[in-house]
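DM from R.C. (forwarded with permission)

"hey, sorry to bug you on a friday — could you get me a structure for this? deadline for the figure draft is monday and I only need the backbone to look sensible"
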Amino acid sequence: MAYKIELKKIRTPPPGNLKEDIDFICQSFGYFSKRDKNNTAGRIFRLIVKKTAENEKGITSDEIAEELQLTRGAIVYHLNNFIMAGLVIREKNLYRLRSHCLQKSIDEIRNDAFRIFNQMMKIAQEIDEELGIFYR
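My reply, with the result:
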């Protein structure tokens, strides 16, 4: 599966506030925008993190919409963005973090990125060698 990951360097929140910590992760992946005036992405992501911690099976988009009082269309839009980034997976009609916990999910995304960069470096080296350009 192809992933589209956006990373933003933002200020780390002070310790001790679960909402701010989860929002930091969400913001670091670029999910808070000025267009999202109701913080829809953050609300969905916080709920998925909590539901994954409670039950590894996941939550349906209808359950998310009902709990957050949002339209299913808005929910599915943000869920698809989380899936594209590799943070969330869909199994049947259930959505959950890609792993049993947030830390492991982020670690798996980092490993995906390392593999992609390693492939790119290998091909870049072959191109440079063919062109007679060498990196020291």
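R.C.: lifesaver. The radius of gyration is 18 Å.
me: no worries. The mean pLDDT is 89.
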